[in-house]
Amino acid sequence: MKKLIEKLYGNSVVRYVFFGGCTTLVNLVSFYILRKLKVELNTANIISIILAILFAYVVNSKYVFQDKCDSLKAHIQPFCKFIGARLVTMIIEVGGVWLLVSVMGLGDMIGKFLTQFIVLILNYIFSKFFVFTTGKK
Question: What is the number of other CB atoms lying within 10 angstroms of the CB of residue 115?
């Protein structure tokens, strides 16, 4: 895993796609498990998104954008920005899944999967230009 991470360090888009894929897996797998446990659609969706957000902050800060925070205190501002940006895309995702599943009649996992494309692109833009800017010129 370490060698793979080292290879990916040269390009933030490649790193983001890789770790974005990992984040998407956290989101989709947790959503699937919660729905199999009969957790209500929107509740399962929100819980799975929160788990993915927490995972994403760690990997994006450390591996993707290589933020230069050197203390816990230094992480507070980017973490708050990250959460704010992810809340925006969470609203889009929850609304999109609801629309695709409850209104348009698609299956749970299909609706969840389709919303991931829009969310992935928006999250990259927010993270690159708004959140992870510590130590960059």
Answer: 23
State how far Cα 65 lies from the chain centre: 14
Cβ–Cβ < 8 Å for 32, 109: yes
- Do the Cβ atoms of 86 and 123 come closer than 8 Å? yes
Ranges of the chain with pLDDT below 50: 8, 137
- What count of other Cβ atoms lies within 10 Å of the Cβ of residue 101? 21
Distance (Å, whole) CA 59 – CA 126: 15
List, for residues 90-121, the tens digit of each pLDDT value: 899 899 999 999 999 999 889 988 998 888 88
pTM of the complete model: 0.71
Q: Residue 79 in contact with residue 51, Cβ under 8 Å?
A: no
